[in-house]
Specification:
alpha+beta; single chain; Glycosyltransferase
Length: 512
């Protein structure tokens, strides 16, 4: 891959690096041209958009079951997701769709912060009812800067693909909104190239704005930014934000923007090369018989992809039937339902999975181990077997598991229970940790108290002892120097607390 990029740099990157570039070209995809799986996904996505759409406000209401972005509140209006619906409407282009999309885009644009003196300049309210951040605002609590690029890239896709379907005045407002988003991000200065999913979207959007505005300074900076994102990827052959069922899917979106809309052949080639590599990495972690990615997860909103909507699962649905894809049956209360509304972007950009990766997603290629350096301090390890998935991340004791709300899961186990459901174990909380997976189990090294969560249909508290877990479909033997042990019952899971330890060994054996 490095040689290919080097050739591109020699052949065509010179003008790119000095500020030249071509405006992006539309893909000219229509709903009628979609394959069956993608068409079904798009239709289901639009059906749920319409179910939650409030015509009076021209915005989407949040699902009631804590979808990502809803913050658990339910029934509020969702600004970002409404822009996604507008893209879907313009793509579908049925009678009345253009008019509805225009009203939605107007409603979304009204939620942008336009005061250049504040840190949240250029981003958007997450919901119209959200108060303006106070002077001593806290990132994420009071505002989300990432809405600049989530909404901005959606606007860019509309302006590339469907400029004739949007009124001229609205088009100009969208271009201005993108510029404000870029200016606000530059001014805030909080984003780094290692924040992978946002860095990829930002790199595309910066390039797009620079070309449209003929802004040589932005072009030069966007080139440098994108080269640094690629350099970080090339160093270890993966992204610093590693193995996330949600955000690896957003990475693919950002890379698809690069490979289709990048202003130079060099940028498009970098995007395509990284996208191909990421798909192969995900395929290596995927067990199609269990319909799940193995851990460890840098960022995950759930442990069983068949029970919540992940963006990787949405991408995979375009090439797999509903019965095979790692997605749950969709209802109004499906966890993280809102992420299915990413389907319009995916349908338009197209899924570019290499054939060898697709084959692994369709049929399990056989038991195998994974060991992947992520950074100088971090190494991911995993074992994927016929009946069990085990994941562990070695962090050189630079990262901890921060509690039930943490997205970082450095130690994980998945298996199928006798009921047919997926059982799982995750390390919920512990101090600085090293976890390592192998064919027979999992090692955890830390110093202090460890909290593990077990979910398995048919699990009874009496089946669990400090040194042995007799779980439905799985036997686990524990060797540890822990001085204390307790069990806390949860709504649909059990938490185990081992205290005063430095090492734990889990010997794991599926039970037929």
């Amino acid at each position: 891959m490095r040689k290919l990029i080097a050739v591109m740099a020699l052949c065509g990157a010179t003008s790119f690096l000095y500020g030249q570039g071509q405006p992006p070209h539309a893909r000219h995809v229509s709903p009628a041209s979609l394959n069956r799986n993608t068409g079904e996904l798009f239709q289901e996505s639009m059906r749920w958009n319409e179910y939650f759409f409030d015509n009076a406000e021209s915005l989407i209401k949040s699902p009631s079951a804590g979808s990502h972005g809803a913050q658990g509140e339910g029934r509020r209006y969702m600004v970002r997701e409404s822009s996604w619906y507008a893209l879907g409407l313009l793509f579908r282009d049925q009678p009345g769709d253009r008019e509805r999309a225009a009203k939605i885009l107007d409603a979304v644009l009204k939620q942008q912060y336009t005061d250049p003196s504040v840190r949240w300049y250029g981003t958007y309210k997450r919901t119209p009812a959200e108060p303006t951040p106070p002077s001593k605002s806290e990132l994420w609590r009071d505002y989300d800067p990432n809405w600049r690029v989530f909404i901005g890239t959606t606007f860019a896709m509309i302006l590339i693909e469907y400029p004739d379907r949007v009124p001229a005045e609205l088009r100009q407002r969208m271009y201005k909104a993108i510029d404000l988003g870029i200016a606000g991000e530059m001014r805030e200065g909080r984003l780094v190239p290692a924040y992978t999913n946002i860095a990829l979207m930002y790199g595309f959007l910066w390039d797009f704005a620079a070309i449209h505005d003929h802004n040589a300074a932005w072009k030069k900076k966007s080139v440098a930014w994108n080269e640094e994102v690629y350099r970080l990827f090339e160093k270890y052959g993966t992204f610093p934000e590693y193995n996330s069922p949600t955000y690896s899917g957003v990475d693919i979106y950002g890379l698809a923007l690069w490979r289709d809309y990048g202003s130079s052949a060099h940028m498009r080639e970098m995007g395509a090369a990284m996208e191909t590599s990421l798909w192969r990495e995900l395929a290596n972690y995927y067990q199609p018989d269990l319909r799940n990615l193995s851990g460890p997860f840098d960022r995950a909103y759930g442990m069983d992809m068949t029970h919540y909507v992940s963006v990787v699962g949405v991408w995979m649905r375009t090439v797999l039937d509903a019965s095979s894809a790692p997605l749950p049956p969709i209802s109004a209360t499906t966890d993280h339902l809102a992420d299915i509304w990413f389907a319009s972007h995916i349908a338009i950009l197209g899924t570019a999975i290499p054939p060898d990766a697709l084959a692994k997603m369709q049929h399990f290629a056989g038991a195998h181990a994974i060991r992947q350096n992520i950074s100088a301090e971090r190494t991911a390890t995993a074992w994927l077997g016929d009946h069990v998935l085990i994941g562990g991340e070695l962090t050189s004791k630079t990262k901890d598991a921060g509690g039930p709300s943490s997205q970082f899961h450095p130690a994980t186990v998945h298996w199928r229970t006798p009921s047919g459901e997926i059982g799982w174990v995750q390390l919920v909380a512990c101090p600085l940790v090293d976890a390592s997976a192998d064919e027979n189990g999992l090692d955890i090294d830390t110093k202090g108290t460890v909290r593990l969560r077990i979910h398995a249909a048919g699990l009874k508290k009496e089946q669990i002892k400090s040194a042995a877990w007799h779980l439905p479909g799985l036997q686990v033997g524990i060797t540890t120097d822990a001085s204390g042990f307790s069990i806390d019952d949860g709504a649909d899971s059990v938490d185990l607390v081992y205290s005063g330890l430095s090492h734990m060994r889990f010997d794991i054996k599926p039970v037929e």
